[in-house]
């Protein structure tokens, strides 16, 4: 039986002290110019103090035009570095790995947050997003790579490339959304090209000791489970990444599509030959029992969202008590404030039915 407090050594040599990663959670609590706020700093560093082996930031945009939500923490230019240096050093002081999630919302950028139209691999009528030119795709690739190098310069242990949840790299991967006819559109190899070029560029620029992960999701937004499994296997075979972060929404559910319902979503991804690449899953891993069930399915570590909001020290509580169950929702605002969740984040959480009293 895999113990949740046993450490992990990634291919790059980075060591994670236990099996708990803080999932990258949208919280809207930084400044509108992308600067780190005290609220964001407190929220993340409190999770490091609570024994998360890896603390990941919310999605941080690599271009101003890629902003996905109000109050988003940015990593698109050097003027934002001081906040990142402060954050990374404090997370690492607690013995946690500090990781930035690199993000671009693409067609999911609310137009009121940026000047001009949102962008997409091809024109998208529904979201009024315009197609990127080939030179803009190249610039997007360079900006992902530059943001990773910026993260390294700011003292982070590594980055995760956000290729999930319908954001820009998902839009490139999606045969439904990506109608391009150049080398970044058409067959799966072309649609995945940008993701692979970003991964290779980051590894080259940041060196072999920099922690590098990729997040993918297998459903919605035109994603096909078989295609995503192929992308995962090809990323492993490329031998440039340290971990894959598969966001399943619910780790125990069956696939949405009937043709894939012979096995659970988790079993679909267990069939990949991960070699020395580590993998994690996210989605409704709520209590100690869920954590153990996932680890017993040969998953290397768990990504915790909701339970990390409810308890800043969820890893500590699970390690101490193999039957630990978090507070039941709805919870009071007072409880959340005590757990380092700001008033802004609480307002955002009120969108989740039955979460806040």
Give a description of the structure.
This protein is of the alpha/beta class and 357 residues long. The protein has helices spanning 38-49, 81-93, 134-153, 168-173, 188-206, 225-238, 265-270, 288-295, 306-310, 314-320, 333-338, 343-349, and strands spanning 8-9, 15-16, 20-22, 54-61, 97-103, 119-120, 130-131, 158-163, 211-216, 243-247, 278-282, 301-304. It has a single domain (8-326), classed as TIM Barrel. The chain is built from 12 helices and 12 strands. The strands form 3 sheets. The protein has an 8-stranded parallel β-barrel, surrounded by 5 helices. A two-stranded antiparallel ribbon has the order 1-2. It has a two-stranded parallel sheet with strand order 6-7. Helix 1 (38-49) links the parallel strand 3 (20-22) and strand 4 (54-61). It is globular, with a radius of gyration of 19 Å.
Spell out the key features of this protein.
357 residues; alpha/beta; two-stranded antiparallel sheet; 15% strand; globular
How is this structure best summarized?
The chain is α/β, with parallel strands linked by helices. It contains twelve helices and twelve strands. 49% of the residues are buried.
SSE topology string: EEEHEHEEEHEHHEHEHEHEHHHH
Q: Give the strand order of the largest sheet, numbering strands 1, 2, ... along the chain.
A: 3-4-5-8-9-10-11-12
Using the 3D structure, state the CATH architecture: Alpha-Beta Barrel
CATH superfamily membership, which one?
Aldolase class I
Helix percentage range: 25-40%
Per the CATH scheme, the topology name is TIM Barrel
Query: Mean pLDDT score, rounded?
Result: 97
Principal-axis shape equals globular
Distance between the termini: 38 Å
Radius of gyration: 19 Å
Number of strands: 12
How many domains, as an integer?
1
| Estimated structural class | alpha/beta
Which consecutive residue ranges, at least 5 long each, have pLDDT under 50?
A: none
CATH class: Alpha Beta
Helix tally?
12
């Amino acid at each position: 039986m895999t113990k949740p407090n046993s450490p992990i050594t990634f291919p790059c040599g980075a060591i994670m002290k236990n099996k708990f990663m803080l999932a990258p959670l949208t919280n809207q609590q930084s400044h509108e110019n992308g600067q780190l706020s005290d609220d964001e700093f407190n929220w993340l560093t409190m999770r490091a103090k609570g024994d998360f082996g890896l603390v990941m930031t919310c999605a941080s945009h690599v271009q101003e035009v890629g902003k996905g939500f109000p109050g988003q923490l940015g990593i698109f230019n050097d003027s934002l570095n001081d906040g990142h240096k402060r954050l990374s050093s404090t997370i690492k002081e607690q013995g946690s790995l500090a990781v930035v999630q690199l993000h671009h919302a693409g067609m999911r950028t609310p137009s009121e947050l940026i000047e001009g139209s949102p962008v997409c691999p091809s024109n998208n009528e529904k979201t009024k997003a315009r197609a990127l030119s080939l030179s803009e795709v190249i610039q997007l690739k360079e900006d992902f790579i530059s943001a990773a190098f910026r993260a390294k310069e700011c003292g982070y242990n590594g980055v995760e490339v956000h290729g999930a949840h319908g954001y820009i790299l998902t839009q490139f991967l999606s045969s439904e959304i990506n109608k391009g006819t150049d080398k970044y559109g058409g067959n799966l190899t072309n649609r995945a090209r940008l993701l692979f070029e970003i991964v290779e560029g980051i590894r080259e620029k940041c060196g072999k000791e920099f922690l590098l992960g990729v997040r993918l999701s297998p459903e919605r937004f035109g994603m096909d489970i078989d295609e995503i499994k192929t992308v995962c296997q090809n990323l492993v075979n490329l031998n440039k990444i340290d971990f894959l972060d598969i966001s399943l929404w619910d780790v125990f559910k069956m696939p949405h599509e009937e043709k894939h319902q012979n096995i659970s979503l988790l079993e679909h991804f267990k069939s990949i030959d991960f070699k020395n690449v580590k993998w994690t899953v996210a989605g409704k891993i709520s209590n100690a029992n869920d954590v153990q069930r996932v680890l017993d399915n040969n998953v290397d570590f768990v990504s915790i969202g909701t339970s990390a909001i409810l308890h800043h020290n969820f890893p500590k509580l699970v390690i101490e008590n193999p039957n630990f169950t978090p507070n039941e929702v709805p919870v009071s605002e007072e409880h959340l404030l005590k757990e380092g969740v700001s008033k802004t984040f609480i307002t955002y959480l009120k969108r989740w039915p039955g979460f806040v009293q």
